[in-house]
Amino acid sequence: MEEKYIIGIDQSTQGTKALLFDKDGRLLKRMDKSHRQIINDKGWVSHDPKEIYQNVVEVVTRLVEESGIAREKVAGIGISNQRETSLAWDKKTGEPIGNAVVWQCSRAADICERVEKMGEAENIRKRTGMNLSPYFPASKIAWILENAKGAKEKAAAGRICHGTVDSWLVYKLTQGRYYKTDYSNASRTQLFNIFDLKWDEEICGLFGIDPKNLAEVSDSDSDFGETDFEGLLPHPVPIHAVLGDSHGSLFGQGCLEPGMIKSTYGTGSSIMMNIGDEPVLSSHGVVTSLAWSMNGNVNYVLEGNLNYTGAVITWLKDDLKLITSPGETQSLAEEAISDDSVYLIPAFSGLGAPYWDSHAKAAVVGMTRTTGRAEIVRAAVECIAYQITDIISAMSEDAGIEVKTLRVDGAPTGNAYLMQFQSDISKVEVQVADLGELSGIGAAYAAGLALGIWNERIFENLGRKKYRPKMDAELRNKKLAGWGAAVSAVLSK
What percent of the chain has pLDDT above 70? Predict the structure, then answer.
């Protein structure tokens, strides 16, 4: 078979990665570039859409140039993206209307409260699978329409595009010829009816959004148009997969069957369980959405989202100055006093699943005179595992499935203390992927499969390191009870 290449693009919260794969699915090279985190005095988190697009072109250009591959051999592109981050732009000029509202940002909480007072929260949950929350794009887009200069007028004139980062990148990479999103991203907007598989006009109306201004929804492995990356490639190539980052990770992990579960440890975390072709509405605080639609076949998932997991380690480094690099957390956690009772609740912008309390405040609970630097760092590391365990338990209850194995990926999985603690506290085998960028890998795999370059044996490329539970049951229960009490102390209701 002649040499062909697939490029996976992972546009994530902190930056953009470009990944180059050969005809055997081997990862040959990776390029990264970070972008600014724009945070104002109210704690609102924003990104510059132009910077994000320019970085995508730049990392792909560097990837192709520095790898030295024959550019004409690039066969296709797959894109994974930070999901709930929302933005708007002028349909004619392609100019952004203000900055993107990042998924972490809860500035639209008042809009959700307004909709809740209408008595519509349960109706929204039953149609979209999601609890009403400023986490999701519905209220973020509404906030843009109500507050960004010119947005309301452009929307009324049908001269606006608004949605998630994937639709922005597809639009820009195809020079405005395609305005599309995929089922995975659409299902995360809180505007998409996951049973009827279309934009829900009534729910859109509750948020003041005209569904005609939303992107066309397509299969996750369909053709999203062609791009040459502003002349980098000698001819345009198809963007043949688009997936939200967590969905890309689920696919890349090979979680293709009902009951398979994965957790991505990134800035935040997405814990996702494949539940097959029938939706199950949660009664335990997680949400139901679409894994993907491929070849016209839909898969559903249960999912829990956490605002602060890897970001907690960034906070330790950049704000508290307790560490100079994330790598220090493992040794400090191991040095901490074993029976110290401190817990960190990272509700810096409220708590996501399974609590859904946007007004909860972060706290360090249970400090004693012996609590020091190592104990605080360990509490920060352990809070990641506690939050994920809460969600695994909720999913197990909803799906009626006992979880025995958790597949994981992301930079924090290199921390052996965290991985062993995750296995101990959740009482499951943790399988750590030997490649860290599963979101971009999943999007690339989907594109390569759709283009016929690979078959499903591609999933065998991934190796795994395994951690098994070792903690005494009594100690585990004591720690979980302490965590539950600490969370209860910060909830606003």
Answer: 100
Q: What is the pLDDT of residues 132-145, one digit of tens each?
A: 999 999 999 999 99
CB 242 within 8 A of CB 220: yes
Q: Show Cβ contacts of residue 399 under 8 Å, excluding neighbours closer than 6 positions.
A: 259, 273, 275, 280, 302
* Distance, CA of 420 to CA of 384 (rounded, Å): 12
- pLDDT tens profile 111-160: 999 999 999 999 999 999 998 999 999 999 999 999 999 999 999 999 99
Return the pLDDT at 1: 59
Top-confidence residue, 351 or 124:
124
What is the C-alpha to C-alpha distance for residues 186 and 163, in angstroms, rounded to an integer?
Answer: 9
What is the three-state SS of 310-328?
Answer: HHHHHHHHHCCCCCCCCCH
Taken in order 100, 119, 192, 256, is the CA torsion positive or negative?
Answer: positive
Spatial neighbors of 66 by CB under 8 A, at least 6 apart, are: 29, 31
Helix (H) or strand (E) holding 68: none
Measured CA to CA, the distance from residue 130 to residue 342 in angstroms comes to 32
Tokens of 426: 């959740």
CA dihedral 134, 263, 261, 423 (to 10 degrees): -130
Q: Pseudo-torsion of CA 374, 375, 377, 381, nearest 10°?
A: 130
> Which residue blocks in 400-429 are alpha helix, DSSP H?
416-426
Contact call for residues 105 and 85 (beta carbons, < 8 A):
no
Closest CA to 277 of 287, 292, 263: 292
Structural tokens at position 164: 């998630």
pTM, two decimals, is: 0.87
The residue written with tokens 């250009």 in the block is 61
CA distance 429 to 247: 21
The helix or strand, by DSSP H or E, that contains position 217, with its residue range, turns out to be strand 216-218
* Confidence class for position 324, pLDDT limits 50, 70, 90: very high
Short-list 391, 390, 443, 435, CA closest to 411: 435
pLDDT of residue 270: 85
Interval 85-113 mean pLDDT: 96
Inter-residue contact 346 to 363 (CB < 8 Å): no
Q: Which domains does the chain have, with CATH numbers?
A: 5-244 (3.30.420.40)
Which tokens hold the place of 485?
């009490």
Residue 47 tokens, joined:
């990104």
Collapsing DSSP to helix, strand or coil, 41 comes out as coil
115 with 133: CB under 8 angstroms?
A: no
b vs e for 357-393, b when ≥16 Cβ sit within 10 Å of the residue's Cβ? bbebebebbbeeeebbebbbbbbbbbbbbbbbbbbbb
- Amino acid letter for position 309: T
